[in-house]
Amino acid sequence: MASVGAARDADSRGGQILTPAELSAFETRYRLRHRFARAANDAGSTCLPAVAEGRVEELEPRDGLRMVGSDLIIHRTYAAVAQPEAPAHASVIVLLQGTAELECAGELLPLRGGGAALVVHPGGGALSALHPAGQHIRAVNVSLLEGSPLPEPTLAARFGARFRCPTPGLWPVPLPRGLAAGLDEWLRGGRRAALAELEAMGLALQLLAHALPMAAPMEQSGARPVRERALLERVRQRLETRPGESHTLDGLAALACMSPSALREKFAQAYGCSVFTYLRERRLTLARRLLEEGQTVQAAAETAGYTHPSNFATAFRARFGIPPRAVRRMRHIA
């Protein structure tokens, strides 16, 4: 069990000052690197300003199972990016306070206080987390390395099966209030070392067990016939590859060789969301990528299938928490 940093509440003084140099220790342990927004006083300076200030708590209650708690004031926008040699792992990230943005293999997921996400990273693909400056972040991250032993056989078997699938994934996870309260209490500390380790183990296993079904909604839907799975996947692929086109429920139902009502029900069972929620997510993700590549807001909106700029701006802000024009500013992160 390892512990790093000094206790710090939002209004307390002191705590650990994290500069790019201090963060290098985390880069070695977790096989990641950091990118920092350029500060006005960076030019010609060899002493870069503080990135964050506060407390980071690291526990390893079992081999390959890590639990990291962060209670930090973010002074400088930064992104944590997995290195190509980062091992295969699954992580559940819980954001108790603040905002962040996760990206895995081109999929973007913004998180706000009270939100959580499951990331399955087979290794070698793109994975990053963006932390905007000027906020207080309180977060818990539970990570399980591929092949790590777990005391619960069913949970171990299901994670093993998910790791055998080479496709990365990023899913939002609804967090029960009781589990969120337990994580919040753990992060605040105050337990003796032995109790803290036992509590961490219990919370970590609860969190993994709760999040895992998000990664395989099709598997959870029971013995769905092979042909039906293939037809539903045909619809999903159409939405995935042609999000900018005009789609109707009747047209997609014809593609799936089923009635509109059957498609509505079966698609939600298989993929965990409605047909048009999935389409909206694909459109907004495409628009976000186009904006990051330098396209204008109007061009990105039209390519993604939005005919009214105001509707696009409203949907984009609701999804990502920022207006479309703000994406250009994020391109300045080095």
UniProtKB/TrEMBL annotation:
SUPFAM superfamilies: Homeodomain-like. GO terms for molecular function: DNA-binding transcription factor activity; sequence-specific DNA binding. Residues 233-330 form the HTH araC/xylS-type domain. Pfam families: HTH_18. The keyword Transcription regulation applies. InterPro entries: Homeodomain-like_sf, HTH_AraC, HTH_AraC-typ_CS, PchR_regulatory_protein. It comes from the Bacteria. The keyword Transcription applies. Keywords: DNA-binding, Transcription, Transcription regulation. PANTHER family: REGULATORY PROTEIN PCHR (PTHR47893). This is AraC family transcriptional regulator. It comes from Sediminicurvatus halobius.
